[in-house]
Amino acid sequence: MGFEELGGMSYYVGILLGLVLVVKWVLKSVNLWIYERGLEKETRESLPPGDMGWPLVGNMWAFLKAFKSTDPDAFMSHIVRRYGPRGIYKSFMFGNPTIIVTTPEACRKILFADGAFKPGWPTATMELVGKKSFAGISYEEHKRLRKLTAAPVNGHEALSIYMRYIETNVVSALEKWSQMGRIEFLSELRGLTFKIIMYIFLSSESDEVREPLEKEYTVLNYGVRAMAINFPGFVYYKGLKARKNIVVILKAIINERRKKREETQGMTKKDMLDALLDTEDENGKKLNDEEIIDTLVMYLNAGHESSGHMTMWSTVLLQENPEFLQKAKEEQEKIVKNMPPGQKGLTLKEYRQMEYLSKVIDEALRLVTFSGMTFREAKRDYDLKGYTIPKGWKVMLWFRSLHHNPEFYPDPKAFNPSRWDDLVPKAGTFLPFGAGSRLCPGNDLAKLEIAIFLHHFLLKYKFERENPECPLMYLPHPRPMDNCLGRIHKISK
Predict the structure, then answer these.
(1) Per residue in 292-320, pLDDT tens?
(2) How far apart (Å, rounded) are the C-alpha atoms in residues 218 and 477?
(3) What domains can you pick out in the chain, each with its CATH number?
């Protein structure tokens, strides 16, 4: 081949590469043209730095790639390397132009600014959890519903009542698991926490539907963090089918409860469903079935997923760190020794004495960061540290950056409950349950469940993992791919 032919080939290769670059530039500019073109010039110029990604999918490929790898933090690390440690970045996530926020001050400011922001969860989350759930309703509706549900879930009297039920089931479950041999520890714990939350909300009527409901919730959860692609084979499509099945089951339970209440006039309230059926606003308007069902869908889901996963992680992390396990165990043995003669079971008095165990739970919540992010939507243009969040844009608050920041938590990837001995977290650096008016309403119940389980586990059992090096999955939540396969052994005295 002569020089002329080589020169001609190089010419065409150059043209081809040029066309590829032009096409890439055009595609990468589509979201900018669509979502920034209509903004005022001043607003466009005050947007934070960032990349809007590809048409339709935005930055979701990079997000999903990171969260399906062994390093979910790679997504944010890449953004920080590219645009600097500013803590505020523009992006395109879950089908919407989005501002990602990673600093404590900015996160707190947004979480407490109810007048400027409303819930901004992705379409998949809203459709699966429910538009009338806590995740979607207005500030006023949320305030009313939270007031109704907070005391029955987190109040002193309620927690005292639930303690006996939780403890009875924990003791029974641990004994049963110790005799079963090989188990999926996470699956068993999710079943246990689901049974507890079903009892709180639906009492005994839930027994026969608990297992099918739990299976449907497992499918639904995978769709909550997915792109809203309603087509066979996609997780969102499967999640919608699961939600339909859940709604059918809950609707039947509600109808049956109404029938029983009509037959038994003046019956006393016994669970959350009764409270939801009885509640009414200042005009005497009661909740409709959609509002009741969406409230139940959200509570039943959140009420077992976080508790089940975090109980597993707290147990495993203690088991992997004998020094901290021994310290936690000694505290529980001391608590039992100091119980009044004749007392059977724990009370809130003993629970409040579990100071070191509380640090264990907080450290597990920090390290694992079960809920890595939350979402808001700007109701108006909003100034944040000199940058503008345009009206209608989503805001993604990235909690992983807060909990794993070495400035706030030295050696942040290490499990070290003792770091909390003299640590008062800086405001906004520890948000495992969110903050502000939309703080997770079941946070106290979740920590109570974990503490009761760890109390009995530490006193009488140990866990032997079959695959200690098992890779982790991070969607929809951090967990071992084998669901923590292993054996519960009873400790011989």
Answers:
(1) 899 888 888 888 889 999 999 999 999 99
(2) 11
(3) 117-371+399-490 (1.10.630.10)
